[in-house]
Amino acid sequence: MRALCMLSLISASLFTSCAIIRPGEVGVRSSFGKLKGEVKTSGMIVYNAFATKVIKIPTRTINRELNINLPSKEGLTIQSDISILYHIKGEKAKELIQNIGLEYDQIITSVFRSAAADVCARYFAKDMHSGERDKIEKEICAKMNENLRPRGFEIESVLLKSIVLPAGLAKAVESKLEAEQQAQQMDFVLMRERKEAERKKVEAEGTRDAQLILSEGLTDQILQLRNIEMMRELIKSNNTKVIITDGKTPAFIDAK
User: Fold this and answer.
1) Confidence of residue 10 (pLDDT cuts 50, 70, 90)
2) Which of 33, 32, 28, 14 is nearest to 59 (CA)?
3) Residues of the chain with CATH 3.30.479.30
4) Cα–Cα distance, 254 to 256 (Å, whole number)
5) Distance CA 109, CA 156 (A)
6) What counts of helices (H) and strands (E) characterise the chain?
7) Residue 18, C-beta contacts closer than 8 angstroms, at least 6 positions apart
8) Is the CATH number of domain 62-170 3.40.50.720?
9) CA–CA separation, 123 vs 138, rounded Å?
10) I want to staple 132 with a disulfide (CB 3.0 to 4.6 A). Which of 73, 127, 194, 207 is the partner?
């Protein structure tokens, strides 16, 4: 009896194994091709190695990189390097394995190609090389989530890392950007000149107003008073002076 028990324990130990589910992944038991039990999020799973295996699914962020040709509104082909950042929802792991399998990366690629073709076909090639790029990325991401979120995927972001325009178009875009920069510079120069012209105008108006005020204040009585004051100062001087006057405005010569 004791030998039988020992044999049973040895047999059980031979067919019993364990799997460790680490952070950033989940595990699901599969027994004879059927998924068993709940999704295990972390810790250790003990199972019968003869009849059962543990399928591990990553839930951390995955970076899927592609080099793909994108269509444009005018019918051109734009080459681009793409990064798709996504993760799998742990609670959907069992459903994902049943409906898609472990080759889910191909699903991500196929859905991206469809979404990118639909979105990029609404934009001109130059838009992908300008400030519209962020808008295009967000639209592709939203369209992918419409198809993939119900299946257990979450697309975090789509990044158009590099855009290679056709040679002729690239040169045209560069020429256009250069012309826009020159136009902006010219606008700045014109604005600066207008400001300078306004400054000179204000300065001239101030000088004119000052002269008008001064001329309005120089009456005959004030001029006569100034003449008297000047002659009074000449009389006080010890130097010999010759005064020539018409009775109104004096002029003097130093006779020293």
Assistant:
1) very low
2) 28
3) 62-170
4) 6
5) 15
6) 7, 10
7) 44, 45, 46, 47
8) no
9) 14
10) 127
